[in-house]
User: Fold these one by one.
Assistant:
Number 1:
Amino acid sequence: MDVVVGGGVVGLSIAWRLARAGRPVTVVDPAPASGASHAAAGMLAPVSEVTYTEEPLLRLGVASLRRWPAFAADLTADAGLTPAAGPAAGPAAGPAGVSAAVRDGLDLRAQGTLDVAFGADDLAALGELAAFMEKLGLPVERLTGRECRRLEPMLAPSVRGGLLAPGDAWVDPRRVTAALLAALERRAVPLVRAGVSELLRDGGRVTGVRLAPPPEDHPAAPEGSEQGDEIRAERVILAAGAWSAGLADVPVRPVKGQIMRLRSPVPLLSRCVRGMVHGAPVYLVPRGDGELVVGATQEELGFDTRVTAGGLYELLRDARELVPGVTELEVAEVVAGLRPGTPDNLPIIGPGAAPGLVLATGHYRGGVLMAPLTAAILQGEEGDLASLCSPARFRDIS
Amino acid sequence: MDVVVGGGVVGLSIAWRLARAGRPVTVVDPAPASGASHAAAGMLAPVSEVTYTEEPLLRLGVASLRRWPAFAADLTADAGLTPAAGPAAGPAAGPAGVSAAVRDGLDLRAQGTLDVAFGADDLAALGELAAFMEKLGLPVERLTGRECRRLEPMLAPSVRGGLLAPGDAWVDPRRVTAALLAALERRAVPLVRAGVSELLRDGGRVTGVRLAPPPEDHPAAPEGSEQGDEIRAERVILAAGAWSAGLADVPVRPVKGQIMRLRSPVPLLSRCVRGMVHGAPVYLVPRGDGELVVGATQEELGFDTRVTAGGLYELLRDARELVPGVTELEVAEVVAGLRPGTPDNLPIIGPGAAPGLVLATGHYRGGVLMAPLTAAILQGEEGDLASLCSPARFRDIS
């Protein structure tokens, strides 16, 4: 049996793939789907997320994005969701095709990402990014400011130009984790709602996990869950995000992100919009239900998930510069999550130093995007890409 | 019997005074203590709240502030609260005397308000206000920027000068309404948790209220409350804030205010701080429990209590300019309330046009400050000041 430590989008995707392949698996998490996956905006945007120095990250992202439609279709079916048939979830006044792209109950949409520039420097950076993409054969379109506003009329008049990555998509991460939990339940995969205090070791081998004792105010464990001191396993798959470094020697650190959900009576945008404002990237992600997600800060503060005055201020200030109309929207939620950052911004996927330990962590800003690829790599697919993510690259250094 | 329509700080204070005087009274409110009183910051700041053109408002505020210590002491005793004896609630590093001023369970504090100026125009306006105050014999102290920062070291370096109103105070409005509700319960004053759909009239006379039917999802009425179609009364005292105009001919309109509560591990301020930033007034009110209240927007949007991106943005932007350190604080709550504005910014207190109707509304930004005075006026005290608030002033116009 395998034990997956971590019930975020990565851990749940891995467990689901394993269960589909007929392998016995158990997931352990004190609060599944509540960490970085809960805070994430859900951009599936390998092209616009990358800088032109990060070709390996781009290759991983593009490969995982290609897997998303089938991943979403399988998950929708496996979770017993009804695919959304009608246009109900699409923007009322959006361009043709938007509604049809609301593919299923995950609110997966694929209208692309529009990266915009305000100043000459930003514009030059977008030009360099475009040249890099074209060299790699990835589709991007350079747009003037007027063309940007034709696509997205609510953009600020000061937008000078932009870059459309027409293949980029986005999804609602909370629907994804809910679907994964439903699919796992339908396949009778045990979900142990407990923390892991340490990995069990026998000689050099990892042989399972020791569960943390529940806190005193913890509710009783749900029916069917396995509550004990230890869970023995052939493999322990560590997918605990920013918390992974507490359990194994893996160079992952928490990078705090604060994010805001606004409620829009009429959709302001029909696609994801990103831009550099005051030197920091800001993005706006429209949901099918009218929500507009604004993200995200990047803060190196350890395990701190407080929503702060300064964080909200930056998000609001920068979002207003991109799309002034956000000012009128209701604030539905503010939340912070901890991304698992790595020294080279690439995830850490594959065998750990000890036999019996597998790592699937360090996805930083890309956990939702990379979940399908990560699960595939752990099934032995994508050998070339897998080598980019190999944990061995850090062992070689130390 | 009297019926008080409205269970905010004004209506509850009136009912409490009546009950103490031995008069039978019933309070009607669908959700007591949840409106403007719930959102209010609780500044008892007649001096700094006023512009130098508003002498009548200033006189009312000063008179009500004088009543606050006795009002608070009586309320604390009547509600069965234990007055706070120790220094626990005071700022750890505040000036001497701060802790001692935490007078009781209402978190009433009296370290004054510091009004600060950034530009030459602001400074000139503060100078005019100071001259006006001195002419009226009210204590104010003009301070240099350095003197301001000596009092409040967290103030922005760009503060050029200020005005200290040493007699100003503040209180926690949520503790005040909770204490009023407790005191009313101890005196067995009925509290009917229902809306009022209309005033009952017999000929020209107001004879009671008709209760609104409860909404379908409304929980069962609590024990001891009176639920019926009508409540007959000798006098109906309309203290329904911004909702008063829906029940009687009174020129009150809702003025939306958004407010934010930050959580401060160490107190940033030892007194209320106000300033004009970007042409709008912003204030910061420190609570004994470490909260810092930042307020407030002023928006003419009808009965709209949505917390908006633009409202939060303005609060955060302006608070940062006054006290840059707020950036690091956790956001505990954001809330909006509706102040009852009037054409001349003065409250409307006294007999209505119809016999049997008494008005106690239109307190705009000053409901918490003015509650003791309002209750006193309705007991026949403060004749001179009462004439300033007389509802007749609007009848004479029309």
Number 2:
Amino acid sequence: MSTASLLVSSRDRTGIVAALSDLIFRQNGNIIDADQHSEKVNGMFFMRLVWDLEHYALDAAGTENALRQLAANFDNQMQWRLWYAPPPPRLAVLCSKTPHCLYDLLLREQMGELEGEIALIVSNHQSLRVAAAHFNKPFFYVPITAATRAAAEAEQLRLLREWRIDTVVLARYMQILSPRFIAEFPAEIINIHHSFLPAFIGADPYRQAKERGVKIIGATAHYVTTELDQGAIIEQDVTRVTHRDSVEDLTRKGRDLERQVLSRALRAHLQHRVLVYQNRTMVFS
Amino acid sequence: MSTASLLVSSRDRTGIVAALSDLIFRQNGNIIDADQHSEKVNGMFFMRLVWDLEHYALDAAGTENALRQLAANFDNQMQWRLWYAPPPPRLAVLCSKTPHCLYDLLLREQMGELEGEIALIVSNHQSLRVAAAHFNKPFFYVPITAATRAAAEAEQLRLLREWRIDTVVLARYMQILSPRFIAEFPAEIINIHHSFLPAFIGADPYRQAKERGVKIIGATAHYVTTELDQGAIIEQDVTRVTHRDSVEDLTRKGRDLERQVLSRALRAHLQHRVLVYQNRTMVFS
Amino acid sequence: MSTASLLVSSRDRTGIVAALSDLIFRQNGNIIDADQHSEKVNGMFFMRLVWDLEHYALDAAGTENALRQLAANFDNQMQWRLWYAPPPPRLAVLCSKTPHCLYDLLLREQMGELEGEIALIVSNHQSLRVAAAHFNKPFFYVPITAATRAAAEAEQLRLLREWRIDTVVLARYMQILSPRFIAEFPAEIINIHHSFLPAFIGADPYRQAKERGVKIIGATAHYVTTELDQGAIIEQDVTRVTHRDSVEDLTRKGRDLERQVLSRALRAHLQHRVLVYQNRTMVFS
Amino acid sequence: MSTASLLVSSRDRTGIVAALSDLIFRQNGNIIDADQHSEKVNGMFFMRLVWDLEHYALDAAGTENALRQLAANFDNQMQWRLWYAPPPPRLAVLCSKTPHCLYDLLLREQMGELEGEIALIVSNHQSLRVAAAHFNKPFFYVPITAATRAAAEAEQLRLLREWRIDTVVLARYMQILSPRFIAEFPAEIINIHHSFLPAFIGADPYRQAKERGVKIIGATAHYVTTELDQGAIIEQDVTRVTHRDSVEDLTRKGRDLERQVLSRALRAHLQHRVLVYQNRTMVFS
């Protein structure tokens, strides 16, 4: 089934739901998903609409045009993003040496649950080349040292453009991206941080967790912004630990969290269910 | 804010969302919550709509009338339930001797989180009269024996009618209700069963759980139907147990589950967020 | 059954388990619980032993004496704490206006699951006097202002001494205790903080959580130390939230966490299952 | 570090803990883990002991002999199982076509977290041969039809013997084993069932779950016995689902549970932390 997805943010105004539904209906689109959220504290309105394109009369440009007219009727207070019969998003996975998240994503794609296509894998180490080969994926080795960082990033960006990448996944990629890199993929770079943010920002969060003596550890998938571990959170999960768990045990238990949290966040993102507003996400179900 | 809530089930047909939104919009209602669910396997469509009545032009009868016309336009395949500026639902709590669920509900009402009003408490024991008195609630003692069961139930029903009860909560009430009782409150009697249904139906589920050696126990809130523990499930939750936990420990841990699961189910029900279809619930968020 | 409980910390040395078990066995004590933990990273050994006193030959003083001799055999590297046929610990609950934690503790005591006795309730407000009265508990109103803080704390301490209090529970008590107060009850004051520590230290953690856009909120029970929210963590738990949850919703959902986390931590403490070492707890199961 | 592990079941008798600790201590063994559990309802005693063999004076046969003498002192009411400097257990993984559990186990072994060695993979389909090859594991294709079932099982058993297999893992292996097969590996065959047992025994549990309308689904790892899905449960876990989740969504979400529950159960088993008594497990931590 070919569908269109629409994410809308607006000052809350009477009639927006009706206007949007009517726009789609008059063009013979059958709405198959509608979910709305109003925030009383700031008077904002958010909506996700998905409709079947089979009998729908407008093309993408026509729909954008209709949305512009509709926005004008509401004083141009409305922002939106439209995915019209979108092809599967193309992903680049950036990784270092740790294999678990990369294998997890590759296997999920193979089992048909990824909602996107892993187009290429880029790493600053050679060790995961075999994993890429096993799943028949292009693998590019771009080594990074303090001296070559700028050139390496330029090469990464060149690859991402060449392969027409939509979304970048940092699958336990242990390098910090420059603001310039981040600016090329706004709200399209997803990182998995191995703590329950905002606890234990930065390096070695499992060691920090052990030292603080927490009884639960977590993992957090978030959009990458220029401030370390401060981007909008997409998904989190946790698991229990006890005093018996060493830092190595936390690391092992954490790997299970990382895989699941990253893949759930990515799935929501690739299904165009995530709307970012003021560094917070709405994840429509 | 005075609102109307609408729950709709229908054969899925192009234009229903638009027609419903348009109906509300044309009467100047501002939609503050819209959530929709389509089931591909059976071609059904479900929706919840909530709108602000402040500037809305129709009264309850007018809205019902408009909905009937709308349904006619869709071949009368649509069922709905409308709550128009509903007063807080009036609850009766039926209990026996165990206090934890009753106290929990009374305290939640006092803290303003219940979304309904506990109008009366009926018990086949005197022991919880003090709890009722502490929270200034009418308490009726209706003893039940095998010989007096029918008369006792008649007295209970008389009380529920006299106090104009909308919803009946079985707060660890250890008696089985007759089909006649149940028929008077369709989808309005909520029970808390102390297992993760459908595991451990019937008596003494914590003992059953201990004997089977499960590693997790649960609790289930469901609508009461004439088949024991077979009604539509509204909410469930679980907690971990180990071999160290005796049946008494399971019972203690389970009490925490029972309170929370019952209150969450009740809250969803009282907010008119639960739609029952073919003995399954949709719980809109 | 009358029992003794022993918590031991020591440099790890061959023969300690055998020496401790042998000490108890030779005096005809039947060990009913033995749990041990060794930390490789710091070479420490921790153990909990519980034994039946029915046929046990030594009294408390004799056991302390035997432990001192045993410790001498291991170069006095061993610390321990012994509870010999301990009476139920006597608790003071300090609270302000919020009722849910206080009711929860009182009801748990009534249902026989508290493992301690709530001896008195102290509050800086009058509003929970009715709850205390309902459960027949002494209630003392000790108002606190900036000007009277020192005198108020002196009065609180006088009450705690007069009522021979072992353990102080801060049941959403919104005041900070002075170092002097804390020093009188080392590792015997338990606070419930309404966040997943170390995230959201300090005031208004639910608002902080909403602003950061976390997908999970938590609660943490910890021993009170002079550094705010930095004491050893005894228990934590979490629950999911979504973008739909307002700060009020987080507060409501959090109350369920607070009750459970506080009561589980308190139960572990009162059963002498919590051993503190370097600001981290071992909670034996 | 070379260690010995001992699991003991016995009628509860004063002095057993001391006798066991003393046996190890007198031979210069340093106990590094001791965990005990007494069941009041049946008067049974269970214990796990792990000790360092570095300075320990007895060999395996000598230790068995000492345990026999000790048992005689306690009226021969004691059963035990000893692993003395055990080599990593050798595993066979039986699978069909579904890849996720097999990849998960292979990757965990590669990351060093398995606590055993996957010695061979046996399947009734060819499709997972590539996964085995990628991880350099022997793969045997043993097709099964109704007509060849007995011969196929004989071939499987021959392979398991030839490769000196200790433990058999059914990684979503969709065939039922004969009693004869099961009898060769008592408490050494672990299955992952894709439901929260005892709910939804047998075929297609996710469909059953959807039809019953549960709000939580689960997975269960258990020892295989001759009664379908009735063996002792080792580990379980659950995840939330909603009315929006189709059977396919439950299947997808369930795969994450299956991986984790199977691997956690297997880890506990391979670390000799699981004691079975009357079809229930004690899983020592």
